[in-house]
Design brief:
It is built from twelve helices and eleven strands. Helix 2 crosses helix 4 and helix 3 packs across helix 4.
Length: 324
């Protein structure tokens, strides 16, 4: 049944994708009216995030950013549909990259490259990277497999259509070791602004006016592998067009200190977001894990973080305090 459903959805997606982008944007405008005005999709969460992240903004500025965000989100949706059939020439005109010469020079020397990305602008279109880089390198991106097998298969087809390899997060080390063994450099994208699990929190930093727990796995991986590290700074000059500049963070990451790469990435990501806040994924509950709750869950004696329900942890700690 999954196989039948996959081909039905693929056929529908393919047929929709054949429509010109200008038609897609008409659909996007209609979708905006439904998502923003009718259903109010996660509007309270978006407003809270914008108010906390930009306290210096006036109410009018935040409302303008909010509406702009939902317009962009609907554009992202239809642009992702179009990604299935858009021509290479058209995509290279709409999704451009600067700084590719430096990356190609590093790759041609035999060194692999890591690209830090965020949920900003259209990260699906960044899978067009193989069109811009030396064939000597294997381009790819680390991804977390979706729970729905049919949808996961559809997105794998989409993201690997132009030659970029999707590497499941759990297989990252094994895949990178394989490419190193055969002597093929890689250019790998890491979207590293997700919320870490409680037992995977090792570092906190100030990000968009929030005390934020961050993923540090990318830093540990690239430092160990010795990959040159770049930040992908993306801007949206106008509807349907994106410009990405590849900015070098460290040519030799092994010479950096703990969390130096992670801190640099989030500083640069925040600068990008502040330049045009509407193109960031504000509907994601990025700050649901607080430092206060982490301190309740963390046991300094064992160095472990409890995954019990918070109510049980509080009840147990109150009992321990009464005994003391």
């Amino acid at each position: 049944m999954n196989k039948v459903l996959y081909y039905i959805l693929l056929a529908l997606w393919y047929a929709l994708s054949l429509l010109p982008l200008r038609v897609h944007y008409v659909f996007s405008d209609i979708l905006f009216l439904l998502v923003y005005h009718v259903f109010g999709y996660r509007k309270a969460l978006v407003r809270r995030h914008l108010a906390e992240s930009f306290p210096e903004m006036s109410d009018e500025e935040r409302q303008k950013t909010e509406r702009g965000f939902y317009h962009w989100l609907c554009d992202y949706f239809v642009e992702t549909i179009k990604m299935l059939t858009i021509s290479k020439k058209n995509l290279m005109r709409r999704m451009t990259f600067k700084g590719t010469d430096t990356v190609n020079e590093i790759v041609n020397s035999g060194q692999s490259v890591a690209l830090y990305l965020g949920h900003y602008c259209n990260w699906e279109w960044i899978t067009s990277l193989p069109l811009w880089f030396s064939e000597k390198a294997q381009c790819g991106q680390i991804y977390h497999p979706l729970e729905n097998a049919v949808v996961d298969r559809l997105f794998l087809r989409l993201r690997q259509r132009l030659g970029a390899l999707c590497i499941p997060m759990a297989e990252t080390l094994r895949r990178l070791a394989y490419f190193r063994k055969i002597g093929k450099p890689v250019i790998i994208g890491y979207i590293s602004d997700q919320v870490p699990f409680w037992n995977n929190i090792h570092h906190w930093l100030e990000f968009l006016n929030h005390d934020t727990p961050v993923l540090t796995g990318t830093e540990r991986l690239v430092r160990g592998a010795g990959h040159a590290v770049f930040y992908v700074d993306i801007h949206r000059p106008r509807r349907g067009y994106y410009e990405a500049e590849l900015k070098l963070i460290a040519r030799d990451p092994k010479q950096t200190k703990d969390y130096e790469l992670t801190d640099a990435y989030f500083r640069m990501l925040e600068q990008t977001i502040r330049h045009d806040p509407k193109c960031y994924l504000w509907t994601h509950n990025r700050w649901k894990r607080t430092h206060e709750e982490f301190n309740l869950r963390y046991d300094p004696a064992t160095g472990r973080v409890s995954l019990e329900p918070l109510e049980e942890i509080i009840k147990r700690k109150e009992g321990e305090n009464q005994e003391t």
